[in-house]
TrEMBL record:
Keywords: Calcium, Cell membrane, Hydrolase, Lipid degradation, Lipid metabolism, Membrane, Metal-binding, Phosphoprotein, Transmembrane, Transmembrane helix. It comes from Auxenochlorella protothecoides. PANTHER family: DIACYLGLYCEROL LIPASE HOMOLOG-RELATED, DIACYLGLYCEROL LIPASE-ALPHA. It catalyses: a 1,2-diacyl-sn-glycerol + H2O = a 2-acylglycerol + a fatty acid + H(+). Its cofactor is Ca(2+). This is sn-1-specific diacylglycerol lipase. It is an enzyme of class 3 (hydrolase). The chain crosses the membrane at residues 20-41, 53-75, 96-114, 143-165, 207-232. Pfam families: Lipase_3. Residues 300-310 have a biased composition (Gly residues). It is found in: Cell membrane.
């Protein structure tokens, strides 16, 4: 970091990445030189080969250029390992060495070509004993063609690291980059979709320029900075744990007769709830969170206590987990009375509707959750329901032999515990533009009509997730709407917009509502005057992207069309809608967040904080990039003093100042974006499945068990905490894990247990067996 600059261009590789390819090439040259010297000696030995003199020039020239490359690449490896990430002055000689190595490689190409011509036109005639391994002609062929292979690999590396759009600050450069990616990923789309593709590329380019166009970072820089920030966060959390445990012991001692009263340490001294880069370190550098009101989570939202008793949780490992530390900090802050536990009935309802959200993913997530038996259950479950559905006439004439469609349908039926008659309608992938896959089903036990929308599972879904521009919700939430009325067009939020939401998800919600209007199933089942199930409740649900779409669909319908509906949003995106909109939905919407998952915490605000943490961690890093990466691979136990300096060093201050200036240069578009995006929060009331510890799980497939408890928190707490960098941030987001956890918590709470534990393969054992029903699960 920053990116390497040679030939007047910024490349997609940093100067401290050079030791990896240079070291590999140096080793190859060293081995190759030894073999070539041995080959030259062998053809001029006692049994000199006929025509050996012709190879003296070709092989000798090749050997000379290889020795030069070996020396240059060894020097590049040594110099590239010098200095920390931003100490580029210690690696300033690298461009000159690269230029010289390119000259040496050019000579290798010329002499290797000459050697190849000689080998196939005038090969050396050598006397070789039968069975002798060293055959000069064959050895030379191996050397020549291995050289061509390495040279081709070097050219491929040059092509991959060549930066077509070197200006990382310009919006146009990001737009062209995304346009090129769109051409590669959507090369087979029809002509009428090209305009939409270019529009998406321009929108994504503007968003990424706004988020990433402030500092020169390569891909390896981002990965290392992320890992560094994660390590520092973990060290801070463990420090908070130790301080909180020490405080608990002092409180216990202070309760003894004659003891001095206990004085709680300040957050700045204990580290509990402090931001990763606290004010004493970021203030001097002049960089801090963009949104100062959310710069710290003083209450330590990231943890919780399994009970009111002091001492470590039995689920914590011997070293002390992050969860234990956060629980202790939470307890010391006196939050036990503020966080209400979730009752068993609510957890039962949550697990009930999470099964629908999981079922919307179809067969891929079903097989992911049950890798051992999923295929057998899909094929043979429900009395061979898959085969029966495929053989049933489609459109009254022919059997339905669409394998993927039938697999998705069967997985939906089995995961949700539905009968074929209760599955009213299914919309599959890519059947309608912008419409997320969803299904409508009847739930007789709860007397509800369930609309379940699928989360992210395709490239289109990822693009939709990335379209985070604020769009206006003013017309979306207006009253007086009718089911058959025109659904408002999507308009970007302006300064006078009162309520706004995620533009990409809002487009999907609008398309889904239009599809529901066209199909007519919801009207004929629930909303129409002659509906077959009039009086039942509508429940909209989904997971991740599907949860965000479900909330916006429910927001539109709840105003006047279906005021009695309920929404269960499982792990929705944090940057979904304005906080005021989410707060107004507390009566009918419940958001469920699991552990340390990152999607519900991801907003423009939390992303800015994360980027600041990563940049500051890289600025203060005292280790070379590869040395830190090697330590991570070896699972080295770091201390903060091992990783970072107390202050931003002088050589990194110019980069810091430029970063600050770039953040300060915001146009009207960026100001409008942040004015609205800074207020986004999770919708409705928030149920948090709080991680309280973990322990190794023994057996023939060892793993870890993780314990959780369910509490109510404010959406503002979740937003202000920011993204927790942890190995659980993606595992906690998986829908099979969440479904298994909710079901186990609901059962344990019925038996007066406040927590529940699930392991890393939770979905495999807790998902319902083929033919299972909700009634059986609810009775369990």
């Amino acid at each position: 970091m920053p990116a390497l600059r040679v030939f007047g261009r910024r490349w997609l590789i940093a100067s401290d990445d050079i030791p990896i390819p240079a070291g590999f090439l140096a080793i190859f040259r060293f081995i190759w030189c030894g073999l070539l010297v041995g080959w030259l000696i062998s053809i001029h030995g006692p049994k000199e080969c006929t025509g050996a003199w012709q190879y003296n020039v070709a092989a000798g020239g090749l050997l000379g250029f290889f020795l030069a490359s070996f020396a240059l690449e060894t020097a590049m490896t040594i110099i590239g390992l010098r200095g920390s990430i931003f100490e580029t002055s210690k690696r300033r000689r690298l461009p000159l060495l690269i230029y010289l190595d390119i000259v040496a490689v050019t000579g290798q190409i010329a002499f290797n070509a000459y050697c190849t011509r000689l080998l196939y036109t005038e090969p050396p005639q050598c006397e070789v004993e039968p069975g002798e391994l060293w055959q000069p002609a064959q050895v030379l062929k191996g050397l020549v063609w291995s050289t061509w292979a390495v040279l081709a690999g070097s050219l491929l590396l040059l092509a991959l690291t060549y930066n077509l759009y070197p200006d990382y600050k310009a919006v146009e450069s990001w737009e062209r980059r995304w346009s090129a990616m769109a051409h590669c990923c959507f090369c087979c789309i029809s002509n009428h979709e090209k305009g939409r593709r270019e529009d998406l590329a321009a929108r994504l380019g503007r968003i990424f320029a706004l988020m990433f166009g402030h500092i020169d970072m390569t891909a390896s820089d981002i990965v290392v900075s992320f890992a560094l920030a994660m390590t520092l966060q973990k060290l801070r959390r463990r420090g908070s744990a130790r301080a909180a445990r020490a405080g608990s012991l002092q409180m216990t001692a202070a309760a003894l007769p004659g003891a001095e009263p206990y004085r709680a340490p300040s957050p700045s001294s204990s580290g509990a709830g402090a931001p990763l880069m606290d004010g004493t370190r970021t203030g001097e550098g002049g960089i801090g969170p963009r949104f100062q009101g959310a710069s710290a989570a003083p209450t330590g939202v990231g943890g919780g206590s399994p009970g009111s008793g002091a001492g470590p949780s039995p689920w914590s490992d011997s070293e002390g987990s992050d969860d234990e530390g956060l629980a202790a900090a939470d307890e010391e802050a006196g939050l036990q009375g503020q966080r209400l536990r979730v009752d068993a009935e609510t957890l039962q309802e949550a697990s009930h509707y999470m099964s629908y959200a999981f079922a919307a993913y179809g067969y891929l997530l079903y097989l992911w959750g049950k890798p051992a038996t999923g295929v057998l259950e899909l094929c043979c479950g429900r009395s061979c329901g898959l085969a029966m559905n495929m053989l049933r006439p489609s459109r009254g004439v022919l059997p339905d032999l669409r394998v993927i469609t039938n697999l998705n349908r069967e997985a939906t039926l089995q995961a949700a515990g539905l009968s074929t008659e209760d599955l009213l309608f299914v919309r599959y992938e890519a059947e309608k533009p912008n419409v997320l896959p969803y299904f409508l089903a009847l739930d007789h036990a709860m007397q509800t009509v369930v609309l379940a929308i699928r989360g992210s599972l395709s490239l289109d879904d990822v693009v939709r997730d990335l379209l985070i521009e604020p769009a206006s919700l003013d017309s979306w939430i207006s009253s007086g709407k009718e089911w058959h009325g025109v659904i408002p067009e999507i308009a970007m939020a302006e300064r006078n917009t009162e309520a706004s939401g995620h533009a990409g998800i809002l487009e999907a919600a609008r398309a889904t509502l239009m599809d529901l209007q066209e199909s007519g199933y919801l009207w004929s089942t629930l909303l129409g005057p002659e509906a077959t199930h009039r009086g039942w409740q509508l429940v909209v649900t989904g997971h991740s992207l599907g949860a965000g779409c479900a909330f916006l669909v429910g927001l539109y319908l709840s105003q006047s069309i279906c005021p009695g509906l309920k929404c269960w949003a499982f792990s929705p995106p944090g940057g979904l809608a304005s906080a005021s909109v989410g707060a107004s939905a507390k009566a009918w919407c419940t958001t469920v967040v699991c552990g340390k998952e990152w999607i519900p915490r991801l907003t423009a605000q939390s992303f800015d904080r994360l980027r600041d943490e990563m940049v500051l961690a890289a600025l203060r890093c005292r280790l070379p990039k590869l040395a830190f990466g090697w330590g991570v691979l070896r699972r080295r136990a770091w201390t903060e003093a091992d990783l970072v300096l107390p202050e931003v060093p002088p050589h990194a201050r110019p980069v810091l100042n430029e970063y600050r200036k770039s953040l300060a240069r915001r146009g009207e578009l960026e100001d409008s974006f942040y004015d609205h995006a800074s207020s986004f929060a999770a919708p409705g009331q928030v149920m948090w499945l709080q991680s309280v510890g973990s322990a190794p799980r023994k057996g023939w497939r060892p793993g870890r068990s993780h314990e959780y408890r369910a509490v109510w928190i404010d959406a503002e707490d979740l937003s202000s905490e920011g993204i927790i960098l942890s190995g659980r941030m993606m595992a906690d987001h998986m829908p099979d894990h969440l479904l298994a956890l909710l079901r186990k918590m609901a059962r344990r709470l019925q038996h007066s247990h406040s927590t529940a534990a699930v392991d890393d393969r939770a979905g495999e054992s807790v998902l319902p067996h083929a033919g299972g029903s909700h009634d059986r699960e609810r009775g369990g």
